[in-house]
Specification:
The structure is a homodimer.
Chain A lengths: L1 E4 L5 H10 L4 E4 L13 E4 L6 H6 L5 E4 L9 H6 L3 E3 L6 H16 L2 H9 L16 E5 L3 H12 L3 E6 L10 E4 L3 H4 L5 E4 L13 H6 L5 E4 L8 H9 L5 E4 L19 E3 L10 H17 L16
Parallel strand pairs in A: 1-2, 1-3, 3-4, 4-5, 6-7, 6-9, 7-8, 9-10, 10-11, 11-12
Helix pairs in contact in A: 4-6
């Protein structure tokens, strides 16, 4: 059995794979669009290099292991049609993303950006408006692995958490869970509105003008999911009109965010270049997901961890 | 019985005091050095306005309620000699200070200051060095009410906590507690070294050159206690020589930090103008401490909450 990696791993990580799976041949090629792929039963990829053309040539392919959380840019219809099993590393991001979310929330509450500007001017000014996180309410759109980890940490800070998902089924570390259609009526309670929703037919454009008008004037809106949750123009208006206090955006309709975007120049926004999940420990963790599944695969167990339904897209 | 406040409280807070304590007369005067003070059994103060001269004139004074956590600038010897009971609001700061500490730690780990500079330049650059807090070790100097609250939150983030106090007695939310004389040998374990120690004879100058040389090159040193814990010159050298990764200082040998201090210009420092404890809820909470003690006082119970031993200074 042959496995193709389309990204590099460290030498010691490869050595460990060879020791743990002596009967498997591991190859590496980061130019999968021109590389021979017909012999590989498994391809391990970040996802974006898998085109329909690659799929057509990968005649032995049975399992696509995607070392990424989002798969919406992949040719899912073709993957489904060919019966290729696809799994991802959903949950790999939960620690860095939850840490990033809390970093931004606490930084704004404790006015760290204001203090940083004062420091540059060598200015000792204690009259800085700082607030407390304790006693706040956070509404989390998409309380899955990542959203729940954020909920766990927020609860530790004495924050009330409201999860919001399509089903309304209770989610971990949420004091309350609501459905998408209850969102508008519950937004006025939230000091923090935080989305980690993936991009699906149900989440695209979910937030509109009326949602931002329903939020508190002091609310912090955070998008750590996908940029198509809300039109950029809607965000720009809400921020210019100070309908909310701050936005913290890690994802955008167009990425990289174009230099001409109005978002760059607004005063009540924090722009993060889609790095909330970055971590020096990423590949190490991705390999843990992969090897766990590879053991299952070897013994014929196709019920892999983090299987994706290519029709649903998650 | 007459009570003098030397700082303002809100009208509605005063009304509540009058309702709860109808037999007590509450006066306000923020110029205690010139005000008549001889009739007051209780003075409620932030502390710094109580001189020996005021004490000599305050012939009815039996209880000094200090709405502050540090009392080292007060004439403690005279207070002790006159048998005046003194209490403070130790613990009032724990929520804002713990939130501030986590804000700074997470901000540095997730590189928020770097991202803020990029945003100003409208620069989309994802190659930013970010690390995770999970799996770190924090050494907390002074694991009392505030230090333990920081420990509780750090543990929620998966951080191992080592408390360090004079006695070595176990402290809450510390995985391990060590004594001052074990500090030097345990510093190499710590990714975060965080002091909330008060200023006492035992803590002044506790940290020296050798302590900073013992820390990890990547360590974050945070002083949220008192500035005399370490000489400014020692800090400047440690930071210039990159013996540690970052310092986050909320307190300084001289406050306000003079414009000519070298600390202002260092690249690996965060300077906060002694605001880590600031919160819009401060006076509300101080009054909770005060009214709890005032009820005790009325029934002759002198075993007040947060009594200070003026000889020890804490």
């Amino acid at each position: 059995m042959k496995v193709l990696f389309t990204f590099k791993i460290k030498d010691e990580q490869l050595e460990k794979l060879k020791v743990d799976f002596p009967e498997i041949q591991f190859d590496f090629n980061n130019k999968v669009n021109t590389a021979p792929v017909e012999d590989f039963e498994v391809i391990v990829t970040y996802g974006e290099d898998i085109s329909t053309e690659v799929l057509d040539r990968a005649t032995s392919l049975k399992w696509l292991m995607v070392a990424s959380a989002g798969v919406e840019k992949m040719p899912l219809a073709e993957i489904a049609a060919k019966g290729i099993i696809i799994s991802n590393v959903r949950g790999i991001h939960k620690t860095p993303m939850a840490e990033t979310a809390l970093a931004h929330i606490l930084s704004l509450k404790r006015a760290l950006p204001v203090l940083a500007e004062q420091q540059k001017r060598k200015e000792w000014n204690t009259k800085v408006r700082q607030t407390e996180l304790r006693g706040s309410t956070a509404l989390i759109l998409g309380p899955g692995a990542i959203g729940s980890e954020m909920g766990r940490l927020l609860q530790a800070f004495g924050v009330r958490t409201i999860g919001c998902n399509y089903s309304g089924n209770p989610a971990q570390y949420m004091d309350d869970t609501i459905q998408f259609d209850e969102l508008l009526s519950r937004l006025p309670e939230a000091d923090i509105v935080l989305s980690v929703l993936p991009s699906t037919a149900k989440t695209k454009g979910l937030l509109t003008e009326s949602h931002f008008k329903a939020m508190k004037e002091t609310a912090i809106f955070m998008n750590f999911g996908r940029g198509d949750l809300v039109k950029e123009a809607v965000l720009v208006e809400a921020l210019k009109n100070e309908e909310i206090g701050h936005a913290v955006l890690d994802v955008f309709e167009t990425e990289p965010l174009p230099a001409e975007s109005e978002l760059w120049s607004l005063s009540n926004i924090i722009i993060s270049p889609h790095v909330s999940s970055h971590s020096g420990k990423y590949i190490e963790r991705a390999l843990e997901f992969f090897t766990g599944n590879l053991k299952k695969w070897q013994r014929g167990d196709k019920d892999l961890i983090n299987l994706i339904n290519p029709v649903k897209g998650y």
